[in-house]
Backbone:
């Protein structure tokens, strides 16, 4: 099981690929596979079949997973993509922005 630098609900930016530069919140994280799903990035088309009576099938667009190494967290204060530093303040481990030093 890998540890990822992103959590559900974080603001993130895509660093490379066809979705480069897109920003959105992290919808889900899979540490075993090393993937994340970012809102508004990597949109795929899914063809769905009706499974029950009365249900409609059709073409649905939704977000697919991206490799976590292609996504970086955005600092809410300086609004820049940043790597995270960890420090201890008042006996608690906190995450700090490398650019502005703000506690995230």
Residues:
């Amino acid at each position: 099981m890998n540890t990822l630098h992103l959590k559900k609900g974080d603001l993130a930016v895509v660093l490379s690929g066809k979705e480069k530069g897109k920003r959105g919140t992290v919808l889900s994280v899979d540490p075993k596979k090393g993937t994340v799903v970012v809102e508004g990035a990597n949109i795929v088309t899914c063809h769905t079949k009706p499974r029950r009576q009365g249900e409609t099938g059709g073409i649905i667009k939704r977000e697919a997973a991206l490799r976590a190494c292609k996504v970086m967290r955005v600092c809410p204060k300086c609004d820049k993509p940043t790597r995270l530093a960890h420090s201890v303040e008042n006996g608690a481990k906190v995450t700090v922005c490398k650019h502005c030093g703000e506690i995230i």
User: Anything to note?
Assistant: The mean pLDDT is 89. The first strand starts at residue 11 and ends at 14. The CA atoms of residues 73 and 91 lie 25 Å apart.
